[in-house]
């Protein structure tokens, strides 16, 4: 690592729709701000970097997330899994001599191409901070849920499921949209969906939501919870079937993380919720200390 | 059956978006017309019936399809599977003494609620006409693909997969839409999708379409064919895993039917394409002859 990150520095978790800036001093967060200036709402990234330094200090800056994608500032090429902190540090993409982007990770294990960009900092930080073991199955639920096999403290392999996006599409468009307007709660309907998700037969189980309505079997007030349980449960069933672990460590906000935890527990496995912000800071510190 | 269908009569296959009217004389189609007056574009069904009789003859009329649903003329209650021609004939819903709606079929086998309305005439007609055996697995691909277990010439059980609707949603909305604009063709990319569909891991395999693009592994021109193969292949994999047969009889237009046939053959099973219009007429004739 270049000497420029030895003192205080700025870290930016720059995603598609949101951005969080951290001023890090002595490994601790001295100041932080979150806004909605994700990469899709930014045209001039250099000007944004100037503005960030004007607010947080004229310091070296480490960027992570979609800012390094083809819709971001510049493309930081993926490093191939297995990848740890050393590989990320070696693959930093330098915009200038004090501004760098953390690369994403790609995998091609088992003929399944997959990519991540942004999640890698949290994942490796969670291990570095001792929040999760170096050999474990991690989940990062969201629009696209990442399921990550960590081995020897590195990202060994991973798979992304479009679970959150499918739920959003079904709530907004198509046959089921009118039924899925209700709030998702962690109750009997959700767990019934998780149970039916064990079939791993999503396209058919989804139609069952319509059929249950036609046959008077389920109130539409419960349909969204059932659908969420079905989608998350199908995702969990597929991942646990391929897992050699008996627990999953979840990096997510408590609500969504709680839904995944309930589905994992319904499969008889343990689920641990991990603080993803702490993991991100630990990951950034680990990269700059290489 | 009442005597009113003993002579010439009218049969109407009245779906959500389209309608087909047949004048049937001596069991044969004497005249037919197809238009886009599906139930969603009709307000006054009684007036439509008068108009049909004005064009085709003042005859008894048998209606099938969504015309008997809660968005149709009047609700013809489902009859429960197992159901054959006799059960449909006994369950006819009479609008007046010479106008009847064929009921749909419902199932609750194995805690899986499912419904059909309109497909039942084709299914039972295919058996009645000797186009398929009385014990067989039938598929009716479409927006919602019906998979039907026929036993002793009756609809014994069935499951509906939202395969076509999911494909349409993904082509129009969300992350993959920009990649899926291409034409679907029955080539290597489609068959690769069918192969990956054997994993029955749809939400994750779909994200692979994005990842393959990011890693330069597949041209977007092939992405739609791959996605179609993946969706149809996942559907086929789930159904064949639960099937006791070694063949599937497909009621569909030749293009979509051909896609399903290729996926079924990729699983080492036989696929037979059946003329769905001939099956419908045979089914209607069988119902009126009860």
UniProtKB/TrEMBL annotation, chains A, B:
Entry-linked InterPro entries: DGOK, DGOK_C, DGOK_N
Domain of life according to the entry: Bacteria
Gene3D superfamilies, per the entry: 2-keto-3-deoxy-galactonokinase, C-terminal domain, 2-keto-3-deoxy-galactonokinase, substrate binding domain
Cited Pfam families: DGOK
Name of the protein in its database record: 2-dehydro-3-deoxygalactonokinase
């Amino acid at each position: 690592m270049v000497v420029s990150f030895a003192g205080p520095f700025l870290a930016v978790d720059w995603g598609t729709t949101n951005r969080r800036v951290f001023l890090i001093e002595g490994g601790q967060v001295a100041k932080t701000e979150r806004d909605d200036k994700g990469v899709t709402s930014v045209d001039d990234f250099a000007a944004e970097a100037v503005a960030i330094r004007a607010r947080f200090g004229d310091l070296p800056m480490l960027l992570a997330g979609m800012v390094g994608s083809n819709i971001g500032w510049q493309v930081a090429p993926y490093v191939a899994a297995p990848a740890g902190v050393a590989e990320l540090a070696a693959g930093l993409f330098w915009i200038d001599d004090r501004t760098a982007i953390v690369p994403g990770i790609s995998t091609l294990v088992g003929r399944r191409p997959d990519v991540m960009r942004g999640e890698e900092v949290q994942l490796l930080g969670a291990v570095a901070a001792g929040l999760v073991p170096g050999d474990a199955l991690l989940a990062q639920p969201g629009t696209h849920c990442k399921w990550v096999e960590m081995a020897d403290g590195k990202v060994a392999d991973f798979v992304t499921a479009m679970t959150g996006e499918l739920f959003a599409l079904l709530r907004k468009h198509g046959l089921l949209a009118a039924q899925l307007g209700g709030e998702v709660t962690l109750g009997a309907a959700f767990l019934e969906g998780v149970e039916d998700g064990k079939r791993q037969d999503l396209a058919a189980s989804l139609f069952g939501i319509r059929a249950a309505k036609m046959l008077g079997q389920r109130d539409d007030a419960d349909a969204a919870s059932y659908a969420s349980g079905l989608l998350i449960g199908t995702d969990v069933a597929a991942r646990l079937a391929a897992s050699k672990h008996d627990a999953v460590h979840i990096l997510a906000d408590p609500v969504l993380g709680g839904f995944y935890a309930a589905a994992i527990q319904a499969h008889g496995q343990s689920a641990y919720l991990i603080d993803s912000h702490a993991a991100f800071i630990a990951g950034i510190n680990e990269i700059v200390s290489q």
